[in-house]
Design goal:
Distance between the termini of chain B: 62 Å
Structural class of chain B: alpha/beta
Largest sheet of chain B: 8 strands, mixed
Mean pLDDT of chain B: 91
CATH architecture of the largest domain in chain B: 3-Layer(aba) Sandwich
Largest interface: A-B, 23 and 18 residues
CATH class of the largest domain in chain A: Alpha Beta
Distance between the termini of chain A: 42 Å
Strand order of the largest sheet of chain B: 9-10-12-11-13-14-15-16
CATH topology of the largest domain in chain B: Rossmann fold
Number of helices of chain A: 11
Shape of chain B: elongated
Number of domains of chain A: 2
Helix content of chain B: 25-40%
CATH superfamily of the largest domain in chain B: Alpha/Beta hydrolase fold, catalytic domain
Oligomer: heterodimer
Number of domains of chain B: 2
Chain lengths: 342, 366
Amino acid sequence: MPRKSYRQAINEALRQEMERDPSVILMGEDVSGGTGAPGEQDAWGGPFGVTKGLYTKFGPDRVLDTHIAEVSYIGAAVGAAATGLRPVADLMYVDFIGTCLDQLMNQAAKFRYMFGGKATTPLVVRTSYGVGGNGAAQHSQALYPILTHIPGLKVVLPSSPYEAKGLMIQAIRDNDPVIFFENRALYDTMGEVPDEPYSIPFGQANVLKEGDDVTIVAFGRMVSFALTAAESVQKLGISCTVVDPRTTSPLDVETILETVAETGRLVVVDEATPRCSMATDIVSLVSTNGFATLKAAPKIVSAPHSPVPFSTALEPLYLPSVEKIEAAILAVLDKAPINNAA
Amino acid sequence: MSGITPITMPKWGLTMEEGTVVKWAVKAGDLISQEQELVDIETTKLANVYESPVDGTLRRIVAAEGEVVPVGALIAVVAGNDVADEEIDAFIAESNRDVVRVAAGPVPETIALPGGQVTYLKVGPEDGEPVVFVHGFGADHKGWVLNQSAISESHPTFALDLPGHGASYKRAEDLSASALAEALLSFLNKLDLKNVHLVGHSLGAAVAALAAASSGSNVKTLTLIAPAGLGSKINGPFFDGFIVETRAKKLRPIIEMLVSDPGIISADMVEDVLKFKRLDGAQEALTAVRAANFPGSEQTVSIGPAIEALKIPILVILGAEDKVIPPFQTKELLSANVVEVPGAGHIPHLEKASDVNQRIQAHFGS
């Protein structure tokens, strides 16, 4: 199977859906790149290069550069979705959600419900998130818990290139507003991605590894960290199950409860801050619905309740790391932490 | 080494790990100056032109157009004209010592047939009688992974994805074994394969038999592994489950019905089936293939008459513990050359690969 990067996988999903369905349009800040500037159009494809080539292929009627006012163009995207188009709008950094939250929270999320099923809002909002590159407090947040909290929105966190293409195609075909969270640190990661279009259903967790001792639930970029930690503790004779929920809304609670019941121990790895987070939500769901299956209290590996530091020394300490996950696995098994002699 | 400047793959940005050499703007022997455009390089993030860091004569281009090179690895050599070629060779050898250039294995190719694009994997020498592998329901060319490599040591081999399967076209009016046999014949014709040995599994065996029957003298031998089309019964619930299940946990016990020892079914194998089923059109294709060939628990595909009429050597290999197509009904219908492999289920070419490979090889010589 051909190998593609996470950003190429998303680009391919957008291109194939735009080929298939003329009502799919893209809009956002610099999604075409360089509009109005002399010289080559589409030099950029957005600041992360994800929409590269799409303006050249589909033209200005389907790929729209918008002004720097999220409330306005996200609102326009909601309206476009409600009146027959299938827009994929780009919220460049999820940190900017504050400026357009009403459009999503009170409008897009509520139309189907408030209009008694007579309105659909087939909108996708692509957004980027995550710690890295010294983005600091206003450009590193992982705000998916806030969107997950709102009924009527669907929230997707693809963890690999294969997941990204399949989940984006599903998001575009879904008739409800979908917020698609792309971790910036994943854009250059590579993986096997089929050339043909395919879709991955929402609300179905992916169990990447099966083990007997500990169940690790992780999201987005944290999935590969969890896999690395699981492989590393294998040398200590500990076998882990690794679960990637793929979507936080709808959440595959059934798979989480089943896999925790098999091991009796839970570690949740979440890049977001802990108050009212997915990690606390999952620990609550497991504790209230699967208490009898637990052999130990669940452990959470997350960021601290703090803004993301700018300091190069502090930023990596903020993020959950493979070492912290290994330590949590040992702790939930009541084993002493490993102290390296060096 | 005096006066030799290495030109290496640049690092553009913090995350770049490798780049593809797209097009050289200069050639060996050219005099180049600093900042002159040397080569177009593409990464997953951008495409740009790399400018020369030095003045000098470009003595050798090391990375060819299309090559993917890690950041920091040598792509060209600049040196004065006074430096001998042998010194340049030595420099390049020294530089490559720590770089492991892995030769890429064969990759699947595509070919246009009347119904659409068909994917296939070709492995082996150019000359010799070709062996064509035809997979069964819901599978693809990768099902022959333990067989194609062995057989390709002595024959050119071709494993295709049948229409409705793998990466081949999914939409077709007719996905019955006869229609698939026609597609197989177009495949053989398009690639101009002569004196072909056909090896088919399950539904693919039925397809191979029907193709052989209408191919005149172009098929030399036929090997049918756990063939469909010889008898009326088939395990309906297996196909029901295969088509319906979308979760690994539920699909696994279905896949395990294919083998005698469930331990050989890896999580990757189950995941591969799921990934196929997610492709646009795959679910519809599987449903249509099933309906056209074995609706419910009955086989409507029939290759008895075709087998009777064939004058070429035919070998039938059955797994003694086949839970999908009961071996007894096949044995009842055929007199000649039936081998039952103990300890194997419906995919003996996977479970007892070396045994089956040896039998297939021996059969080619018949």
